C-alpha cells in the first residue's frame, strides 16, 4: 500500500494531540510505517522558523511567508520523502491552518494565500483532513485550565478565534472530499472511535 497523508486541524484547545497519537497507533498497528510530525516545524530548520512565527511580532505577509517557508522545508526534507518511500504521514496542521489563521484570523488576502499554496505544494494536498470543530469560548476555557502563558496566537482574543473557526469551516466546505469535521465537544473516547472508524473506512475497507 502506498503512503497516505493525514492532517489534523482545529483552533487551539480543540484536543487534537491525543487523537493524533491514537491515529498513529492505529496505522502502525496495521504493520505500516508512519511518521508523526507537525507544522510549523517538523525539521530542524522548520522548528527554528516555528519559534519565529509563534513568538516574534511581524508583518502579516511576513508571517504567511514564514509559515510557507517552514512548510516548503518540511515537505522537501520529511513529508515527500516519507510518502515516496511508502510511509504514512500524520501531521498536526498543514496549509489549512495558514488559511484559517492568516486569511481568516489575520485578514491576509485569499489570493495571496492561493499563490503561496500553488507555489509551495501545487500537487500535494492531504488525503484526509480531520477538523476538530469547537466553540472558541470552550477552547479558551480548556486552555486556561491547562496552560500558562501561550504563544502570540494563543493569546489572541475571542473574535480572532471566531474568524479562524469560520475560515476552517469554509475551507472544509470548499474541500469536502478530503475533510471530515468532528464535534470536538464530545469525550476523547467518542472522538477517538470516530477518528479510527473514518480511517478504517477510508483506507482499509
Percentage of residues in helical conformation: 55-70%
Mean pLDDT: 94
* Total DSSP E strands: 5
Radius of gyration: 16 Å
Any idea what the shape is? globular
Largest sheet: 5 strands, parallel
> Helix- and strand-based class?
alpha/beta
Q: Measure the end-to-end span.
A: 13 Å
Q: Strand sequence of the main sheet, in spatial order?
A: 2-3-1-4-5
- Uncertain stretches of 5 or more adjacent residues: none
- Run of helices and strands: EHEHHEHHEHHEH
Helix count? Answer: 8
Structural features, described:
Its EC number is 2.7.4.9. Belongs to the thymidylate kinase family. By secondary structure, the chain is an alpha/beta fold. The chain contains eight helices and five strands, in the order E-H-E-H-H-E-H-H-E-H-H-E-H. It has helices spanning 16-29, 44-55, 60-84, 95-106, 110-120, 136-146, 158-174, 188-204; strands at 5-10, 34-38, 88-92, 128-133, 179-183. Helix 2 (44-55) runs antiparallel to helix 3, helix 3 (60-84) runs parallel beside helix 5 (110-120) and helix 4 crosses helix 7. The mean pLDDT is 94.
Write a compact overview of the structure shown:
With 205 residues, the chain is α/β, with parallel strands linked by helices. It is built from 8 helices and 5 strands, in the order E-H-E-H-H-E-H-H-E-H-H-E-H. The two termini are 13 Å apart.
Set out the fold topology:
Layout (H helix, E strand, L loop, with lengths): L4 E6 L5 H14 L4 E5 L5 H12 L4 H25 L3 E5 L2 H12 L3 H11 L7 E6 L2 H11 L11 H17 L4 E5 L4 H17 L1
Helix pairs in contact: 1-8, 2-3, 3-4, 3-5, 4-7
Amino acid at each position: 500500500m502506498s503512503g497516505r497523508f493525514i492532517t489534523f486541524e482545529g483552533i487551539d484547545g480543540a484536543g487534537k494531540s491525543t487523537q493524533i497519537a491514537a491515529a498513529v497507533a492505529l496505522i502502525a498497528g496495521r504493520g505500516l510505517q508512519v511518521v508523526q510530525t507537525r507544522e510549523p516545524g517538523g525539521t530542524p530548520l522548520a522548528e527554528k522558523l516555528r519559534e519565529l512565527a509563534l513568538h516574534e511580532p511581524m508583518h502579516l505577509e511576513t508571517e504567511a511567508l514564514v509559515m510557507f517557508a517552514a512548510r516548503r522545508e518540511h515537505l522537501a526534507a520529511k513529508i515527500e520523502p516519507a510518502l515516496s518511500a511508502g510511509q504514512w504521514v500524520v501531521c498536526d496542521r498543514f496549509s489549512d491552518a495558514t488559511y484559517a489563521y492568516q486569511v481568516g484570523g489575520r485578514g491576509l488576502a485569499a489570493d495571496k494565500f492561493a499563490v503561496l499554496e500553488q507555489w509551495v505544494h501545487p500537487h500535494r494536498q492531504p488525503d484526509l483532513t480531520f477538523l476538530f470543530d469547537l466553540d472558541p469560548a470552550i477552547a479558551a476555557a480548556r486552555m486556561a485550565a491547562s496552560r500558562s502563558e501561550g504563544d502570540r496566537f494563543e493569546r489572541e482574543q475571542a473574535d480572532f478565534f471566531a474568524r479562524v473557526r469560520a475560515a476552517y469551516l469554509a475551507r472544509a466546505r470548499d474541500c469536502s472530499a478530503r475533510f471530515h469535521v468532528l464535534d470536538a465537544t464530545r469525550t476523547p473516547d467518542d472522538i477517538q472511535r470516530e477518528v479510527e472508524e473514518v480511517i478504517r473506512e477510508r483506507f482499509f475497507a
